[in-house]
Specification:
It is built from 7 helices and 4 strands. The protein is an alpha+beta fold. Keywords: Transferase.
């Protein structure tokens, strides 16, 4: 399977899930500005017209988009990895967390803060309206190791999003000690440590590439 990704973007969650599952995949880096696939110089929009990562091409050539859908696909495709959830209430809880992370944190809070073209009013509004989501997470994580009763793709997604606080100074994790402890604990997990380290090096190379082209 092929995973189209950009360094340290939300696609990092799928890399983590694949590492947890211990499966091989082709990792195809997409420049977030030019939408060029670095391996062959092709236009990524020929694969996903929206130009968004992650995008996954499965072994049967099916193209999947949207982070939550791809994470659930990986979890179900490799059940022995134990990163999915059983049927019934537990699976619904997994869906709940994937939706919460994707809408309340990823899109509502972090996207405006990370968007260099967003006006300051938009960033201020995002902070004033959505920091309460971190308060909710802080209360939920008290006494918990993971979002479910075991590590799942929801944790892979959440740690990916929390990692963005490195680039969003208005969000200081020290204000949410349970979230901070959760993040630091999961960053030490082998699959996550490996994925973050690899993509950080690619991110630095991406920055250098853009600087040279400017």
């Amino acid at each position: 399977m092929d995973l189209y990704f950009s360094p340290l973007a939300c696609s990092l969650a799928t890399r983590i899930a694949l590492y947890e599952a211990g499966v091989e995949a082709n990792y195809l880096e997409v420049d977030p500005k030019t939408k060029v696939v670095q391996k062959d110089g092709s236009d990524f929009r020929a694969v996903n017209p929206l130009g968004l990562v992650p995008t996954l091409r499965t072994d049967d050539e099916t193209v999947l988009t949207e982070n939550a859908a791809i994470l659930q696909y990986v979890a179900d495709r490799f059940p022995n990895a134990g990163i999915s959830a059983a049927s019934g209430a537990e699976r619904s809880r997994l869906h709940q967390w994937l939706c919460f992370i994707g809408t309340e944190l990823h899109k509502a809070l972090f996207v405006p803060l990370l968007d260099k073209t967003a006006p300051q009013d938009a960033k201020t509004y995002a902070l004033s309206k959505n920091l309460s989501r971190l308060d909710y997470l802080e209360n939920y994580l008290k006494g918990r190791e993971f979002l479910l009763d075991h590590f799942s793709v929801a944790d892979a997604y959440l740690v990916t999003i929390i990692n963005w606080t490195m680039a969003t100074p208005p969000i200081e994790l020290a204000k949410w000690p349970n979230v901070k402890a959760y993040y630091e604990r999961l960053r030490a997990r082998p699959s996550i440590a490996k994925a973050v380290a690899e993509e950080f090096e690619l991110y630095k190379a991406e920055l250098a590439r853009h600087k040279a082209a400017a």
